[in-house]
Protein 1
Amino acid sequence: MNILLNIAYNTAFGEELVLNIINGKEGDAATTYRMSTSDGKIWTYSLKLDAKAGTHIDYYYCVVRGEDNVLRKEWTVAPHRLEFNNKDIERIVVYDRWINIPDNSYLYSSAFTDCIKRRKLSVLPPNDNVATLRLKVRAPQLRGNERLVLVGNDVSLGAWDVFRSQQMFEHSYNEWVADVDVTKLSGKRIEFKFVAVDVTDSGNMLWEDRYNRVIYVPEVTEGEVVVHELDDAFFPIYNIRCAGTQVPVFSLRSRSSFGVGDFGDLKKMIDWVAYTKQRVLQVLPINDSTITHTWTDSYPYSCISIFALHPQYADLNALPQIADKAERERFEALRQELNALPQIDYERVNNAKTEYLHIIYEQEGKEIMASDKFKAFFKEAESWLVPYGQYCYLRDKYGTADFSKWPDHHSFDESERRSLSVQRNAAYKNVAFYYFVQFILNSQMADAHDYARSKGVILKGDIPIGVNRYGCDVWQEPRYFNLNGQAGAPPDDFSVNGQNWGFPTYNWDEMIKDDCRWWVRRFSNMAKFFDAYRIDHVLGFFRIWEIPYNAVHGLLGQFSPALGMTRDEIEAYGLHFQEELFTEPFITDWVLERMFGERAAMVRDTYLEPSHDGRYRMKPEYDTQRKVEAAFDGKTDKADTDLRDGLYALISDVLFVRDHRDPNKFHPRISVQFDYIYESLYDSDKFLFNKIYNDYYYRRNNQFWYREAMNKLPKLVEATRMLVCAEDLGMVPDCVSWVMNELKILSLELQSMPKDPNVRFGVLSRNPYRSVCTISSHDTPTLRQWWDEDTSRTQDYYNNVLQKYGAAPHPLPGWLARDIISRHLLCPSMLCILTVQDWFAVDENIRLADADAERINIPSNPRHYWRYRMHICIEDLMEAHDFNQNITDLIKESGRM
């Protein structure tokens, strides 16, 4: 079969167009063909293909310069599709249009196509046309109950009668196609339109909003198909807006759970979301975070594997019963005890569930692992499952996850993969339990995902920005990580000292060498379980806050990558650069008196030594925050922790930090305006420093960071069809909105954390449609906590935002919580997703009496215990009719689906 592809694209000198045919296998490169042109405007390629009837090809175009320098390419989430529906086709001539990422790209996401609309794709049926004109059009606005038809002026197109129109087929998501028999057309010029028809009521139809389309029918010979790709159909259909709930899986509570939420509870929560007319259920990360087998592993953003799921989420009720009656009764008694606790007992729950899984493995493992389903899972997951299994075995065998302390296997040895994959080997027997558990978890989570789709609910996941430095990912592929630094966040509303997450930073140079394959695999795996996702700390794809490994707090960090400043650049602003004064801790007698008061002399004698000119420096045994931390290990009374924190502050009191990679470059220390070194400057030097500071943090790096993000994010956004949302809060440079708008990523909007620096509270009516609106998150106080946290701020909000008179009531009454939530639901944002605690706030009979008991995380505390659990069982929630009706009414009143 001969296929002639044509596309109009104006190129510059030296640019060429390349046709890329997608092979369909994950990880396989597309087959490329260089196209030709006679004028630099119309590009063609003649392709000979042995195509069978009933098959198709997907392809896209890109612009290159030289051999492999790709300048730009089409949007690959929804590529061109060419179907071969007739065996008698001899030649196909295709006239394509360049496909950029559309403004309504979200309508192509699986969140919309598979959860909200749920139309089944159809195959273009064979026909007996002698010569065919194929018309292709994209109509992403169509609702789930609507189909597209073609109607025109020609009798064969219905003569403008929709009931005699040409049927169209949705052969690819949102793309409709019709084969018109050219021999039945009465003329060479046809006028037509597309019409959306309601399949439940054929009399309910909607014509596209535009002038008639016109095509001059080309000469089409016998056995030939001419394909015209048309511009999108547009209908006067309002934008879809949805409401949803955010709750960690571990926080779910049902009558049958085992002291922690599980994937069975997730299905029950999906029922509640659907019952109250919500459309989205958002959860926190569900990956395995087991490092120490203690409560410190409760931090869900510190995963050990980007693929493996946490064993605590196994739904034991979905497994075969334990055969031994006494054991079965023992576990049931323990289950009831743990499930009655107000919060999660992480260690007892995980120890009990692990023991239970071991019993089921011994009892049922052989049969389950001999099944076709397990074999299919192992084949698909083998690339990550085998290293994960060996990592878990060695971690438990040696009693530590720090693989640098293991006597051997300091990194994964690929040569051992086969012995770990063959059942008859002893090595396989050591790791088989971990394979078994992951099979159970993957099966149950995939089942919950399918269940959510069947209920029309979008499951939204969470992709943490980092991984644990002692996790399996770092052990397996250390080349992708920088272990001499720590990822974190600069100071913000959450933490005045910044956040130190302890994660290694990414070696992006190495990742980009293979087109971010590690990330693409991560996103592709997540698409098995979710139809939308939140990119945690999307700013990390522009630059990450990198903290030296010898630091505890985040103040000594610097953005990486970033354009550090040379001495000459700093002095060009007029500030005389005194390297030692500006880069070494500023410690003087007056600083010590101010910081430590009556303990100043003790601090001077114990921790400091004289330097020069009345200044001091830290003694070598205390000259880093890590050394101070070690010196105070185990000392927990307030006097000791205050002294420790004071020493931390002394060490971070510098005006500039030296670049981590180039010692001749410097970065203004973040938030130094609150420290003593800044206070010691002359007013004129303060003015000059602030000019440097503002230029550096808000202007100097913008274009540089834009390019950094565009080298990474497009590959990840186009890796799946999940709806992409981002957490873009904090110290946000201008380039972030440039990239998010270009890639059509949904932003996060919190009224209490406005992005406009000129207002105290965000204006909800100004939220962009392409955004997620919320009131609180796992990292912030709940609505009820926020209300009582700062009474003057609350009073301002009550009088000037809510436009209510008098004193603000405390605590927050249910009727007022309902009013606040109603205003958020009415905003333009596509998604309004509220924490389950904020939904509870509207009903004083449902919510917890103690608002502080609903807090999930305190970001300023790196050792926070993540143990919040819903105080009400989902079964009881389903029966709370007044509360559920209240929520349903709120959603209907707001016009959300």
Note: The mean pLDDT is 95.
Protein 2
Amino acid sequence: MALEPSVLESRFTDLALASANFGFLLPHEPLLVLHGASCEARAAIAPAEAVLAARQFGEVLAAELGHRARVRLPTGDQQARLDLLSRAGMLPGPVLDAFNDLHRFDGGAHDEREVAAHLVGRCFALAVWLFRALTGDPEPMTFVHASASDLQVLAQRVAALEEDLPCLRREFDQRVAPAPLAVAEREQLIVSARDAAYEPLREADISAEVQRRLAKAGWDVLGAGEESQLNRSLGCVLVPRLGGGLRADMLLTVGGQVVGIVECKRDGIDLAEAMEQAGALAKAPEGSLPWPVWRSPLPYRYVSDGRRLLFCDANDPESHARLVSGFHQPRTLARWQREAEADGVAPTYRARQAAYLQLQDEGFDQLRIAQRGAVRAIEQALAAGQRRALVQMAVGSGASFTGVFTAYRQLHYARAGRILFVTDRKLAVHQLIAQLRQFSMPDGGRPLDDVYHVQELTAHGLAPSASVAVATVQRLSAMLAGTPAPEDGSESVAAYETAERQAHSDATPLEVSYCEALPPDAFDLIIVDDCHRALYGQRRALLEYFDAPVVGFSATPTATVLGFFKGNLVESYSYEQAVADGVAVDYSVYQIQVDGDRQSAFATPVDAVGMQARRSRRARYEDLDEELAFTVGQGPARAVPSERLAKVVTAFRNALPTLFPDRMQHGGGLLAVPKTVVLAQDGLHADEVVERVRDVFGAGDVFCRRITPRDAYAAELLREFRTTPQFRIAVVTDLISGNSDMRVMECLLILREVRSAAYYEQLLAMGTQTISSAELRAVTPGADAKAQLVVVDAAGASRHLQLLVNVTDASGQRGRAALERLLHRATDGRATPQETAELAIRLARLIPALSDADGAEIRKLAGRPLQELVTRLLDSVDSDHLASLRRAGGKRAVEDERREALYPLTEDLQLQEVLLDLYDRPAPARGTTSGSRGRRQDKTVGRRLAEFVEQSGPFNSAQLWWIEKIADVVATETRFDPAYLDSIPFSARGGTDGFLDAFGPDAAIDLLGELRRALA
């Protein structure tokens, strides 16, 4: 029988009073007091029971942490819980070690009592850590060794509660169920947990530790009697010995002048308050010091307790103190001095954001609206002193180019010293470097690399001349944390795939140390290009090491990512918006199910509209952190087994005429098969899939091939898949390519379990990028336009489905009938939000196949382009947009928004007929200039080309091919973007690499600039 609440409370109070080592946890979690005291009381008399109590202590503490951090944890698997908490950044190294001891320490040859005593100590260490993390109290706490009589009393009070333990545990499990938590609060908890993991320094050791860290950064600490030797080194540290009045603990000099102060404070002191005191000390009037003073007040101020280091640059506008991982080098402060003296209006990097960037818009005409918004939002965040800014951009909407453009503006206008780009794949490094080097600066057309040297970060560090560095997460880990150098192919494998494929991949939090080749002040800005959430969780120390603002780009920001950026999502461009703008295509999802030996069946999955319509984008992103929570520890991901592969592939082949009716039903043989990517489990599984595909389709070796990240010729095979008609189906085990490389893909066949919702979205993003009709026809003869991505799921991956609406009959007579039905519903005023969303998606499917004449007619009848029509429809059912409208104008504003979005369609029957007629005729070719205007453009470009060849030649036949093809693009597109070099027809000759090989790297970049100017 359960105890009465008042009796229970009284007994827990008695237990806490009897337990000097665990009683202080009573206000935070009574069960921890019970299990900790039980372990302590029985360690000597019943060690086996004490070990069990220690493990229960660890399990309850892990569940409590998951509840407080809102990390969804699996039940019954402590190792999986610890892995997930560690990946979220909740468990610093020493804490994870203590947890692991409680979970699996066997003691080896040690006596049972010794093992129990050891685990009591580990429980106490974790209890102290939790107490400090929750209260911020840093006071040292030592274990109290109780007498035998005290332990007997403790055991009696434990026994008085243990009879009610099952009931207490059930109540605890209900209490720690997942609940919402603001990501900023979660981030604060992670920081507190990290700070609480280390014992505070003794007051006598703090000054010595601060001096050691100064010396590590290159400062020369002058001893007693050496105060006159300020010019002995560029940067010197004085420990002033002055009588009377206030004085700083240490003074920093650069070039013989005092420029800053360092204050040492006892651990636990509020460093923000200490910084205010340091500010008062920095205002000491000139002449009060016996050494030359650069400026008064002294601008560079540091406060430290030996572990944490707070820094403030008073030259910043509305200066804010910030935590840094180490002291800045003397040469860095010297550079800051020079910049401040040269520009009194904007003396710092942050000041230049507001003074210059907001006034400049040169080059913005080459950006899409979403890209312009992202660049402006980033610059406004930096000007406001925000150290972390997150941009959400749908894959294919130009996030990489936005990052490159941002870097150019930071270098050119804000005069950043050096910028770091971080990605989690080697191939992405090469793509970013090529994009940076080919970027044509708007203020004259010169390549970026001509003025700002771009370099890949290697084990040898960076050249002093490097203005932009590009690095993988693995390379940074090797340099800052001493992990093995990434020479085993790991840089070719995405972190998404590592988490997906390994049941218990290493979840140990990364700890970094000072690296002379890459000091904390090496960069002024860090731009992260859509890395896996592990970088913001267990590897977050890599970013926190540098004293630089971090700008992150992510297509699917999870709770871990949002938490690291403290919820500072400065700009968002969703996948739905990208579809409406014609930047991405929609996707449809089908499901293949095999039931025993029965014939495979083909069906559509359950639509996810209901859930999607009720939840905001941020809520969906935060919920993506459920990754792996329910499958971790269950072994390798499940896959379609060998004996069922033939049935699944046969079902897929038989369904193609239904999925692509306009193409497959008109012949074309194997070349009519859409470019398809198949996701397999591993290399062996991929080989089996390749065999089955070739057998079922009756095709040769070139039709279907395997491409895995560690294959020696992966890049070459990938290029062939993108550029040759014969290679139709690629079997992969991971996201092996930059997403922009897969726009020829129209179908995704999933043959293995996908454990992560974010990974699932990344897979879909590979195929949702748009492609011009001409480029698509070059690799898929007979294709008119890419209207959608078809996803065929044979492994249950569609449980992650986040569709706004699943439109699986968007073409032909069925598509026309569905559109007609929706238009009638809208005209009658009876269209539901779900039907409005479906109407938008069906209209969006028309965008890729829209001719100029069709677009003009729709604009005339509707008063706006089709893209804008679709955008307004999607906005009218978007939960985020509607929430802002409801706050501003109430329910009436929401109703007006939906009515105005539908108005052009409901009031103009002629517009409805035009839209319906588009389903009745084949799509026209796009991307060509028609009529006399096109012929005039061709003649003009041809004349300019002949003049260029005559003046700049001679060229060999291979070089002339490149020049003439570039001229062909200019004749139709009016301008040539260097990114075109990686598309057809250039990709057939090696893309950017082939162009560089044909002319030589330096000459190629110069020639491209000259040719673009000549043809313009």
Note: Confidence is low (pLDDT under 50) at residues 492-504, 608-614, 626-633, 923-936.
